[in-house]
Design brief:
The complex is a heterodimer of chains A (about 600) and B (about 40). Chain A has about 600 residues and is mainly α. Helix content of chain A is about 60%, strand content about 5%. The longest helix of chain B has 30 residues, at about 1-30.
Chain lengths: ~600, ~40
């Protein structure tokens, strides 16, 4: 580890800290329908949209209506994306004349983008037309992020309101999240990325002639090897910058290119890399401020921000230190940091980003449910690769996905307050609301669905030679990590992958599709039920026995609950995957 | 054929989601003693 590396990490965190309050205050104004400086342009657009769709913006919804609206919206947009993928050969903006996407892959991709996962079991530049990327995928980047923000705001209203039956209007919330929050920031961010060299065009792919022809040897299925001389390279391009902005800001993560943010057309410079990382945390960090302001307890919002920061720092420290160490099996190779090289484990990393920015990106993208990558997590050292995996397993509540991170953390807050209440033998209270059996039952339902889905599907895949195991590149504990990572990433709606798994098979497309659906919607339903129940409660005044949720002690308790829950649930699986691999690596075994 | 199957699976998944909303409502009614069906 170097001072330079830590300084870059500190600059990143300082920017997140500086951006949280203005972003959070702005979102408070937007969702409380107070005046903002964008109103003269956006209010007329909003009115036209409501007139066209027949939405009454003054009509409030109970949690059930809010939830069913969200489900209907998601189902409709999912089917739209599926249709666009299947019909892309007949549609415009397809200069490469790409054919229809296979049904199982199209379905997997449609679910993936609807659920804000952006798991990609395909190579985008050779599978999706420009129209599919824009109309089918980039639109979902906006919609799924807007849905996440809307749900978080609904949960905040549930905490803030007293003896109310409603949580707001779903259609108004996603409209305002899109028009006021996502679109304006993405326009500015896209232009900033273009200034750094991210491409934005509708050209067909270029062909470049190589200065030095390359010999390529391929072994066929029959075992015969054929050698060809490659003299040209296809340069894929397209409307990248506009998709890149929402990919990061909406914590979607689906790359325009297969190499994602490691591709120089998506992430060309250290500055674009910094901007992309900050944009992952911008809205989730801002939402903690929104929580504090809308509930009238700004210090509570900052306490949650503090707990998230603690968990983020622990992840960065672990990942950076693991990747900065030399690989113990490379004897006689200079792996030390110097002015000429980054040192440490540079396999799968971009030289222009080095160890610190690769470890920071990997930690940040999996703390949030982003899933964009600027290095290949599969090539990390076992403990370095375990950090992204653990981050997702904790529920991606460390700032988390836009909206999803906050409401996930608030479920942990309810469990923490409940545990604190058990310790002192009092009915737990949270910001003036008594936490009762129903709240805890549904919070536990929310928390348990996640590991159940991951562990059951991983177990089936790990025991099925013809379905799960045949897709693996590596065997042993590393192979288990690849399977575990795939289902964890899908259930957590992250979308990043350990690169060693070929997921474009019937089994993985369908099982991961179902996992993504369950990890998104079956967790949202109990969360909204808790919000609806909290909104209906009376407010009780704080007493001497009330556990304060604004103190560092609360932040530490919350951090501990998140860690203990994750550790107890997933430690057995982790010990058979990355932990075992780490021990065997030091004994000289690789996989 | 495959398209119809995947459209059916999609609709089945979201219908399950709606039934799940109903189940959560019933859990709430039970917790509050408003449901007498076991």
């Amino acid at each position: 580890m170097t001072l330079n590396g830590w300084l870059q990490i500190a600059v990143f965190f300082a920017l997140v800290l500086l951006g949280a309050k203005p972003m959070g205050s702005y979102m408070t104004r937007v969702f409380e329908r107070r005046r903002t400086w964008l109103d003269p342009i956006l209010v007329p657009c909003e009115r036209i949209l409501y007139k066209l769709t027949g939405v009454d913006p003054e009509q409030e919804m109970r949690w059930t209506a809010y939830c069913i609206s969200m489900l209907v919206f998601s189902a409709a947009t999912l089917l739209l994306t599926y249709g666009v993928e299947r019909l892309q050969q007949y549609l415009p903006l397809n200069p490469q004349h790409l054919g229809a996407v296979a049904p199982d892959l199209a379905w997997n991709t449609a679910i993936s983008f609807t659920t804000n996962t952006n798991w990609q079991a395909y190579t985008p530049e050779s599978t999706m037309s420009y129209l599919t990327q824009m109309l089918g995928l980039a639109t979902h980047n906006f919609w799924s992020a807007a849905v996440g923000i809307a749900l978080a705001v609904a949960f905040i209203r549930g905490i803030a309101r007293r003896e109310a039956r409603t949580l707001g209007n779903f259609w108004v919330d996603i409209t305002r999240a899109t028009l006021w929050v996502l679109v304006p920031i993405c326009i500015v961010f896209s232009l900033a990325l273009v200034s750094q060299g991210v491409v934005q065009n509708f050209h067909s792919y270029d062909t470049a002639h190589l200065l030095e022809p390359q010999k390529q040897t391929v072994t066929g299925a029959d075992g015969k090897t054929t050698t060809t001389t490659v003299t040209t390279q296809t340069i894929a391009q397209g409307p990248v910058a506009s998709q890149e902005a929402i990919k990061m800001l909406g914590t979607n993560g689906g790359g325009f290119f297969n190499a994602n943010s490691a591709h120089p057309f998506e992430n060309p410079t250290p500055l674009s890399n910094l901007l992309e990382m900050v944009s992952i945390f911008l809205i989730p960090a801002g939402l903690t401020v929104t929580l504090g302001q809308m509930t009238g307890s700004p210090r509570h919002g900052w306490a949650i921000f503090g707990a998230m920061s603690l968990l983020w720092f622990a992840g960065v420290l672990t990942c950076y230190s693991a990747e900065a160490q030399p690989n113990p099996l490379f004897h006689g190779v200079d792996q030390h940091v110097s002015y000429l090289q980054s040192g440490g484990n540079m396999e799968g990393k971009e030289v222009r980003f080095g160890i610190a920015n690769s470890a920071l990106f990997a930690t940040t993208t999996t703390d949030a449910s982003c899933g964009a990558v600027n290095s290949m997590h599969d090539s990390f050292m076992p403990l370095g690769g375990m950090v992204p995996l653990v981050n997702i397993m904790l529920g991606e509540v460390v700032f988390g996905g836009v909206g999803a991170g906050l409401y996930g953390m608030l479920i942990f807050v309810i469990v923490s307050v409940f545990i604190a209440g058990l310790m002192v033998g009092r009915t737990p209270e949270y910001l003036g609301k008594k936490i009762q059996a129903y709240d805890v039952q549904l919070s536990m339902l929310y928390l348990l669905i996640f590991p159940v889905v991951i562990l059951i599907f991983s177990a089936i895949a790990a025991l099925s030679p013809g379905m799960g195991l045949s897709s693996l590149t590596n065997h042993g504990p590393h192979g288990l990590s690849e399977i575990l990572y795939a289902y964890t990433s899908a259930a957590g709606n992250n979308g990043s992958a350990f690169a060693g798994l070929n997921a474009n098979t019937h089994w993985y497309n369908i099982s991961l599709g179902i996992t993504m659906f369950m990890g998104r919607f079956l967790m949202i339903v109990p969360m909204l039920a808790v919000a609806g129940n909290l909104a209906s409660k009376k407010s009780v005044p704080a007493s001497a026995g009330t556990f304060p949720v604004t103190t560092p002690l609360f932040a530490i308790l919350l951090t501990s609950v998140v860690l203990i829950f994750g550790a107890l649930t997933f430690f057995p699986a982790l010990s058979l995957g990355p932990i075992l691999e780490h021990l065997l690596l030091h004994a000289g075994h690789t996989f | 054929m495959w398209d119809l199957l995947f459209i059916f699976i999609t609709l089945a998944c979201f219908t399950t989601g709606v039934l799940y909303v109903r189940a959560c409502v019933r859990i709430g009614m039970r917790a509050k003693g408003e449901c007498n069906h076991g």
